[in-house]
Structures are given as structure tokens and as C-alpha cells.
């Protein structure tokens, strides 16, 4: 699904693996809130036109490159920043917290421009917005679990720290979780 001749998409998508195991907490640590949303009406901004029953695979559809991901990058960028910022604020509100309470924003590592703009939208200093995209690129859904592992292993996390995990993905879906370490 990646067209290596299309620089607007081929450099953005990768893959990785990560996992988080959650268990019941006997203290006040753990998930405090979650917020999520979706807007399928914007699906034409990030689409795989061919495949399935709509445009079944054929010699013609492959020749027309209809089985490659197509994206209107500027529009996706704007919606990602807006929705990730809104999700973080709403999840904090549900938890009874404010942006100033956040020790680390841990965003999905899709694009450094989206990460930076989301941090700026939330008025968080760069040192409170965790990034590792410079090491791995976009490792898809693994990026937040890998970031949590790195924060923990580096000793940056302290008991009681407030983390906000936030992501935006295909299908125009977004979510945020507020977590007390």
C-alpha cells in the first residue's frame, strides 16, 4: 500500500512493536480518564482508493496505482493537530486536571511537525513533549508503548507524574488517555 515514488506518503509510514500491560493498582496511580472520537466524513483525505468490493483488484486498478495510500497531507496535518489537542484537553477535563498539571505529553510519533504543533497548541514546553521519532520514524501504534518504555528506563518518570497519551490515526480517529504514574 506504500508507493515508494510518492514522497508525500512513503516516508511517513513504518511499523514497530510495543505492548503495555495494565493491572489493578492499589494506590492512586493508573488511568484517570480517556477521551476518543472519530469523523469518517473526512476519510477522503487519507484513503486507499482500490481494493475490496468498491474497486476490486485488477490489472487496470494496479496499473492506475489505486492500491496505494493517497493523502492530502496539509489537511490531515491540520485535523491531526486540532483533534489531538482537543482530545488531550477533554481527557484532562474528565480527570479534573489542567494543562499545567501535565508532566509529559506522549503523542503518537507520526510526524515531528504534528507533535511540535500539538505541544504548542497545548502551550507545553518542548521538554514536556516526549519525542523519539528522530530515532525510529513513525513506528505506527507501537510509538506510545515504546515511548513509555523509554521514559521509564531513562529514569525521567517519577511516581505521581501525570502523562497524557494522545494519538490520531487512519479513519480520522483520535484518542487521549490521562495516566498517573
Number of helices: 6
Structural class: alpha+beta
Cα gyration radius (Å): 18 Å
- Summed over residues and divided by their number, the pLDDT gives a mean of 93
Main sheet strand line-up: 1-6-5-4
Q: Report the order of strands and helices.
A: HEEHEHEHHHEE
Biggest sheet architecture: 4 strands, mixed
**Number of extended strands:** 6
CATH architecture descriptor name: 3-Layer(aba) Sandwich
Task: Fill in the CATH topology.
Answer: Peroxisomal Thiolase, Chain A, domain 1
Helix proportion: 25-40%
The rounded distance between the terminal residues' Cα atoms is 38 Å
Strand content: 15-25%
The coarse silhouette is elongated
| Overall number of domains | 1
User: What is the CATH class designation?
Assistant: Alpha Beta
- The parts where pLDDT drops under 50 for at least 5 residues are none
Query: Which homologous superfamily in CATH is the superfamily?
Result: Thiolase/Chalcone synthase
Summarize the structure.
With 181 residues, the chain is an alpha+beta fold. It has one domain (18-43, 72-180): Thiolase/Chalcone synthase (Peroxisomal Thiolase, Chain A, domain 1), CATH 3.40.47.10. It contains six helices and six strands.
Amino acid at each position: 500500500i506504500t508507493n515508494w515514488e510518492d514522497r508525500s506518503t512513503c516516508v511517513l509510514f513504518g511499523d514497530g512493536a510495543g505492548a503495555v500491560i495494565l493491572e489493578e493498582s492499589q494506590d492512586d496511580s493508573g488511568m484517570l480518564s480517556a477521551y476518543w472520537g472519530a469523523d469518517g466524513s473526512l476519510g477522503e483525505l487519507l484513503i486507499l482508493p482500490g481494493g475490496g468490493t468498491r474497486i476490486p483488484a485488477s490489472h487496470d486498478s494496479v496499473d492506475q496505482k489505486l492500491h496505494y495510500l493517497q493523502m492530502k497531507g496539509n489537511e490531515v496535518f491540520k485535523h491531526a493537530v486540532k483533534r489531538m489537542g482537543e482530545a488531550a484537553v477533554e481527557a484532562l477535563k474528565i480527570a479534573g486536571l489542567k494543562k499545567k498539571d501535565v508532566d509529559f505529553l506522549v503523542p503518537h510519533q507520526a510526524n515531528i511537525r504534528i507533535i511540535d504543533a500539538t505541544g504548542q497548541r497545548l502551550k507545553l514546553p518542548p521538554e514536556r513533549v516526549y519525542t523519539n521519532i528522530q530515532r525510529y520514524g513513525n513506528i505506527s501504534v507501537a510509538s506510545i508503548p515504546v515511548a513509555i518504555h523509554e521514559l521509564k528506563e531513562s529514569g525521567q518518570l517519577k511516581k505521581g507524574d501525570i502523562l497524557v497519551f494522545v494519538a490520531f490515526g487512519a479513519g480520522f480517529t483520535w484518542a487521549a488517555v490521562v495516566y498517573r504514574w
